[in-house]
Sequence to fold (183 residues):
Amino acid sequence: MTVRLLFTLYFLAAVSAPGCQADGCPHGETCACTPESGGCTCQDGGDCDLACPDPACNPICVDVDTCAATCGDGCTFDCQRSSDCSLATGKDSSIFCSKVTSCEATCGESCRYFCQDAETCRVTAGPGSTLGCNRADRCEIFCEGSCIVDCGSVGACEITCLGNDPVTCDDGRPACGEGCYIP
Fold:
C-alpha cells in the first residue's frame, strides 16, 4: 500500500509540475517537438529544454528560469520574462527575447535576432543577418560575414566581424562586410 501511495504521489507531482507543455514531454526531460504536435512551449516553470529540429518549428518560453532550445532552418524562437534563454538554429530563423537576464543565440545565414530589456544579449550569426539590441546593458554581436546591426539604448555594443573590421553605414548603424546593403 505504501509503495502504491508513493508511486501515485510521484506520478501526480511529475504530471502537475510546471515546465514543458508540449505533448508527450515528461517534466525535466528534453521536449522533442514537431509542428504537428501543436507547438513547442514551456511556461511557468524552472528549467526547460526544447528540441525542435523540423523546419518552421517554433519553440516558445515564457516565465521560466532557463530555456535552452534547438531548432532547424526557418524557425521562430520567442523567449519572454525568463532568466536565461539560449538557442541554436539554422538559416532563415527569427529570434526574439524580451525582459530576460540573458539571450544567447547561434544562428545560420539570413537570421533575424532582436533582444530587448535584457542584461546581456549575445548572438553569433551567419552572413546576411539582421541583428538588434534595445534597452540592454550589454550587446555582443559576432558576425560570420555581412550583417547589419542596430544597438538602441544599449550600455555597451560590441561587434566582432569575423574576417574584417566593423564599418559604419550611411544611416549610422554598424555593419560587417556588405551589411549596409542588407534590406
Observations:
- The mean pLDDT is 82.
